[in-house]
Amino acid sequence: MSSTSDIAPGGTPADACAVRVVDPEKVALVTAALPDAETVAELAQVFGLLSDPGRLRVITALLEGGEMCVCDIAAACGHSESAVSHALRLLRANRVVRVRRAGRMAYYRLADSHVRMLLDLALTHVGHGEEGT
After folding, report:
1. Is the per-residue pLDDT at 121 higher than 90?
2. Who contacts 89 (Cβ-Cβ below 8 Å, separation ≥6)?
């Protein structure tokens, strides 16, 4: 719900364009650069996976520890092995982590450097906000 401070004199929202002009060249350029609907849906899925604090702790543990077994991840995160296994199953299905099997043991790691970069950037962004306060 808008508050009266969001309304400029004359009854228009304060962030609305004073003169409504559409730049067709810019709109065409941006429209052409936008990813297709399937890509946007996959991106939303990845960010949805990262939005859960439990899964994010698992991912961060793998960021810091490299390849780890479920037992070690659970101990590092303070979660049950069952909860970690469930999180890893979702992350693996969405290509965020990979598994390597050695006999009966399964070792998990981040899938690729893109996941690592995404997390590093997010952590830097969060830390940057803390430095400014």
Report:
1. no
2. none
